[in-house]
Design brief:
single chain, 329 residues, alpha+beta, Phosphorylase Kinase, domain 1, Aminoglycoside 3'-phosphotransferase, Chain: A, domain 2, 2 domains, five-stranded antiparallel β-sheet, two-stranded antiparallel ribbon, 11 helices
Length: 329
């Protein structure tokens, strides 16, 4: 009897009708589609290496509290509860269980102005709700610089295949990182609790309704900063180039619920790559075997690192144009 079968029996999900099917797309954890005699579920098996981290368990618990607090006029997929618990432990492994939703993520070129407006509305509602979750702490505004040069030294020691690409980009990484650190000090003056990772992969569409999934990054964020990040996620074409009509549609949806009249876009856009830099650091550490050591994780780390570097270059090329469009709005 495998772990998911035991999980189904322990928590009353019913007897399996067929073997669980792994769902492709998860970058950190594994997700399975599970059909039982009682229903259909999405079962997430959490990465055991990540769960060893000191704050991982509390972060997972807090993020699901945020998801539940956001429920209502925002379509949310939150983990099911048993005796008030959403993070379930079985034989040393951690799981989360969700009702299965027949929906799909959309990516360029399928993303339309209608999708963008809907996402603007979702984000505007989320920010306007002013969520309060007692286990989530505000950001301090104190951020250390990422040790990009240390990672370069390690890459040289290991003679990695991606060394030249990383070394070429190092001056830009150092510059952007410094910009982010300075901008954060100003942006922490206004914070709301939000999702913080509204990438297209974390939204499932059923007909015209977007359902927000994967809340594990949830926490406090400056709302204008998250808005800028969401614009980069949703308003670009297949080449990563922002489309003005999609930017305008997303802003139109957002400003139905929250004004951006007082936003300082110079500061906001200087900080809008923070999420990408943080993800890049994590991918570099995976590629070097510093985070999770097995070969599969290292290979995935390299792939994600190279992709994120490409996204950062596109971001840098388009911030001035986006600033103009945001100021007009």
């Amino acid at each position: 009897m495998n772990g998911i079968e035991k999980l189904c029996l322990r928590y009353g999900l019913g007897e399996l009708c067929e073997e669980p099917q792994e769902v492709v797309g998860g970058l950190l954890h594994k997700m399975y589609r599970v059909k039982t005699k009682n229903g259909e579920y999405a079962v997430k098996r959490l990465n055991p290496e990540i769960m060893k981290r000191a704050k991982a368990m509390q972060n997972m618990i807090s993020s699901e509290k945020v998801a539940r607090a956001a429920c209502g006029d925002i379509p949310v997929i939150a983990a099911k509860e048993w005796n008030g618990e959403q993070l379930l432990c079985l034989e040393g492994s951690y799981y989360m269980i969700f009702d299965w939703l027949d929906g799909a993520s959309v990516y360029p070129p399928q993303i339309t102005k209608k999708h963008c407006k809907s996402m603007g509305q979702v984000l505007g509602k989320l920010h306007a709700k002013q969520l309060c979750v007692d286990t989530v702490e505000k950001e301090s505004g104190i951020r250390s610089l990422i040790p990009w040069e240390t990672y370069l030294c390690e890459a040289k020691k290991q003679q990695t295949s991606w060394l030249a690409v990383y070394e070429e980009m190092l001056p830009q990484l150092l510059h952007w990182d410094k910009q982010v650190t300075q901008a954060i000090e100003q942006l922490v003056k206004e914070q709301v609790i939000s999702h913080r990772d509204l990438d297209p992969k974390n939204v499932l569409w059923r007909e015209e309704t977007p359902y927000i999934i994967d809340w594990e990054a949830a926490g406090y964020v400056n709302p204008d900063k998250e808005l800028a990040e969401v614009v980069f996620y949703w308003a670009a074409d297949t080449n990563g180039t922002l489309e003005q009509t999609k930017v305008q549609a997303l802003l139109a949806g957002y400003t139905e619920y929250r004004s951006v009249a007082d936003a300082d876009w110079n500061v906001v856009l200087a900080c809008s790559c923070e999420g990408m830099l943080g993800w890049l650091e994590y991918c570099v550490k995976r590629a070097l075997g510093m985070e999770i050591g097995d070969e599969r994780e290292r290979k995935q780390g390299v792939e994600q690192m190279l992709g994120t570097m490409k996204e950062l270059r596109r971001w840098a090329e388009q911030t001035e144009q986006l600033k103009h469009w945001l100021t007009e709005a």
